[in-house]
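User: I'm preparing a small set of examples for a lab meeting where we compare how different chains pack in three dimensions. I only have the primary sequence for this one, and I'd like the structure in token form so I can line it up with the others. Please keep the answer compact; I'll paste it straight into my notes.
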Amino acid sequence: MKALLARAGFWLLVLAIAAYALFPFYYAVVTSLRSGSALFTVAWLPEDFDISNYVAVFERQPFGRNILNSILVAAGVVTISLGLAATAAYAFGRVAFRGRGLLLLTILAVSMFPQVAVLSGMFELIRLLGLYNSLPGLILANLMLTLPFTVWVLTVFMRELPRELEESALIDGATHFDILWRVFLPLMAPAAVTTGLLAFVVAWNEFLFALTFTLTDENRTVPVAIALMSGATAFELPWGMIMAASVIVTVPVVILVLVFQRRIAAGLTAGAVKG
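Assistant: Understood. Below is the structure token output for the 275-residue chain.
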């Protein structure tokens, strides 16, 4: 009886946490299917399936272009972050050199600064490089947010890989580059997928840099495009369109998590048990 009560309590807790996490997204879906004065009344279930808000999102502004911009920026950030982090992790995890620990802590400390603290310096750098109001400028800015934790996570994982693999490859005549890309990277796939997905989510949702470093609608990403949907007053804001746009940009992240959920779980638990 006690075991049954404990199991029932466990599942009630799981359901409560799931409801707490999923309710905002559910209510956004319900709101996106309403229009007019109905938006200002509470409804727990969809009253009809009016998709006019979804159509208006793409008709009134270049939202398709904004989505493409977000995809390009997030994909570029993930690719560059994983490429640089993999080589850095090999250096930090397998090569002994003076100041290795201090340098790794310095890289991690970069992520502790709030975005607004580095905003002016990053703006001057991007303007100096001629990347203002361009997607490469956003990719460069977002690397400051994603590189520290990708380097840290991959370094921790790299240190757990057996040294015998590296020694055997060196005996067979492999270079350090061959060891990294042909031996270690396949083994690091779970950790790479996990960190890559986290970097994608950070770049996909980033707002402050995207708002500061872009000027035209054609170069804006989806968080800025949603934020700039405006009306004359709070009651005239296109809340239905805002909710529809929010649902549209949330779905790709949910799909990515569902597709890679097994690798994500493997990456989060990698290195937890040694030996």
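A couple of notes for your slides: The longest helix spans residues 63-94. The chain is about 75% helix and 0% strand.

User: Perfect, thanks.
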